[in-house]
Structure prediction request, 179 residues.
Amino acid sequence: MTPSNDDRIDNQGIVAKVSEATEVVAEASDLVASVVTTAASDIGSYIRSQREAAQVSMRQLASRAGVSNPYLSQIERGLRKPSAEVLTQIAKGLRVSSEVLYVRAGFLEERPHGPVRDALLGDTEINERQKHVLIEIYDSFRRENEQAQKAEDAQVTASQSEPEPSTDTEPPIQESSHD
Prediction:
């Protein structure tokens, strides 16, 4: 039994769609690899700039962070993407917030900035755990106030939609009977 023209056309269409899907997957794979490479080089260049700003040598930072000098060099050049644990150690060695490094590396989503949050994250007199606790307390106060404001707004809206009581002071007109 020989395939009909319709069968050949259907097979050609399937082959074309599979080929197209393969190209899309390859492009997506290239994009993911590019994003990972960019994130690694971004965090590496950020660590290097922070290290240079703090006037700390690569050898000193490697020692403080408990990693080898070559490994730190590879991170700074974007050849390696450090784990969250290594980022925490590097943050301690640089005396910066590990949250900032996590965001730069793509481990955390960036949180909204504000003067209080920025001041806490930049404070070198308290440790990372203390910063985290203070930010959590600050955020809980903000959420509490936001909920209270929403409740107050809802109350105002509800009171505005209720009919207002009549303020007429005149007595109602009564019909009189004339006998």
Observations:
- The helical segments are 5-53, 58-65, 69-76, 84-94, 98-105, 115-122, 128-161.
- Confidence is low (pLDDT under 50) at residues 33-40.
- The two ends are 114 Å apart (CA to CA).
- The first helix runs from residue 5 to 53.
